[in-house]
Write a structure and sequence with these properties.
Elements lengths: L2 H10 L8 H32 L3 H8 L3 H8 L7 H11 L9 H4 L16 H6 L21
């Protein structure tokens, strides 16, 4: 085989998607901020599906979506909504983002912010005047009804 035959052979048998490599690399670079999370979630979901013995079809039924959508989710290339993440967590009984939210779930233990002259407790409201909370603050005097 001479050089010309080799070039013709390579041209005839080149991969169809040869030109997409640069576009694919650019896509990954431009979207890496969210893709890294999508890939990590996909790996966690695949692992849990394997542990449960689930197929993509099983997960699609649990999520009420198509098997094609599940396939795309499992490729790690889908910018998932919070709704999708919540459905995945519920269906597979796993924690995907819940641990990140634990500090926000127990809102009763979170102290509400204090505003400029708001008393911290009911006792403080009674025992100390509002003016003691803010230096130089003097409540307005209540005015009587306007005289005509």
């Amino acid at each position: 085989m001479n050089t010309m035959d080799t070039l013709e052979f390579l041209q005839a048998h080149k991969h169809k998607n040869n030109g997409n490599f640069l576009a694919e690399a650019q896509y990954l670079r431009d979207n890496w901020d969210w893709l890294k999370y999508s890939f990590a979630i996909a790996i966690k979901v695949k692992s849990r599906m394997e542990a449960l013995g689930w197929t993509q079809k099983d997960l699609a039924e649990a999520l009420h979506c198509t098997q094609q959508h599940v396939s795309n989710l499992l490729k790690g290339r889908v910018n998932m909504t919070l709704e999708t993440l919540a459905k995945l967590e519920k269906s597979l009984q796993i924690d995907l983002i819940g641990e990140a939210l634990t500090s926000f779930t127990n809102l009763s233990s979170v102290e509400t912010p204090l505003y400029l002259n708001e008393p911290r407790t009911p006792e403080e409201a009674v025992s100390s005047g509002t003016s003691s909370l803010v230096d130089g603050y003097k409540p307005r005097q209540k005015k009587g009804p306007k005289k005509r």
